[in-house]
UniProtKB/TrEMBL annotation:
CDD domains: SCO. Transmembrane segments: none annotated. Disulfide bonds join C77-C81. It comes from the Bacteria. The keyword Metal-binding applies. Residues 1-21 form the signal peptide. Residues 38-201 form the Thioredoxin domain. One of its GO terms (molecular function) is metal ion binding. It comes from Nocardiopsis gilva YIM 90087. Keywords: Copper, Disulfide bond, Metal-binding, Signal. This is SCO family protein. Belongs to the SCO1/2 family. Cu cation binds at C77, C81, H166.
Length: 206
């Protein structure tokens, strides 16, 4: 049984994990998971983006029915984003076919000025062609990030090769859109895969 985290506590925890750097995961003493259990802290918001195939994607409605990992980043990120997507791809490869069918990775760009669907599709395909990339307006992106306790900071002057600060955590949501786990940056693919196998088994039993 995972412990429900009050919303205020969840916000305080996740707001502390910002920018393109972060510590490795810190498992709880009595938890079966490597990731931090955050049951009930967040709910996927119903905000419509454009996915990497150019189609509308409602973050809540189109994630229903499968366990979904959500990460905010940008394709020009020098370290956290490509490392996290590579780790997620390796973890997914460790799942069997049925488990992969019941799990989805969603990458929401925090840099929609530069990350259009075509670029997202090309970038994500280098990790796993089944990963979903989302881009939208600045307002919708920031609303979704705020609803999920993810920090995003952009420079006022977004000309040239600028960087975007963003939370480095990956959040995992149940098939009903409720938060379940959080992985800090640096969580190893084997640990992610083990968490997923246990989580998918538990979600299937509910």
């Amino acid at each position: 049984m995972r412990i429900t985290m009050p919303l205020a506590g969840g916000l305080a925890l996740l707001a502390a994990l910002t920018a393109c750097s972060g510590p490795g995961s810190q498992p709880g003493d009595d938890s079966p998971y490597t990731g931090t259990e955050i049951d009930g802290a967040f709910t996927l918001p119903s905000i419509t983006f454009t996915d990497n195939k150019g189609e509308d994607y409602d973050l809540k409605a189109d994630s229903e029915g499968v366990t979904t990992a959500v990460f905010f980043g940008f394709t020009n990120c020098p370290d956290i984003c490509p490392t996290t997507m590579a780790d997620m791809a390796q973890a997914v490869d460790k799942l069997d076919a049925d488990q992969r069918e019941r799990f989805k990775v969603v990458f929401v760009t925090a840099d929609p000025d530069r990350d259009d669907p075509k670029l997202l599709d090309m970038w994500l395909s280098s990790f796993n062609p089944d990963f979903t990339g989302l881009t939208g307006s600045i307002d919708d992106t920031d609303k979704a990030a705020s609803d999920l306790g993810i920090s995003v900071e952009r420079p006022e002057d977004r000309e040239g090769d600028y960087q975007v600060g963003h939370g480095s955590q990956t959040l995992v949501f149940s098939p009903e859109g409720e938060s379940e786990l959080m992985w800090n940056y640096g969580t190893e693919p084997d640990a992610i895969a083990d968490d997923l196998k246990l989580l998918l088994k538990e979600d299937d039993a509910q």
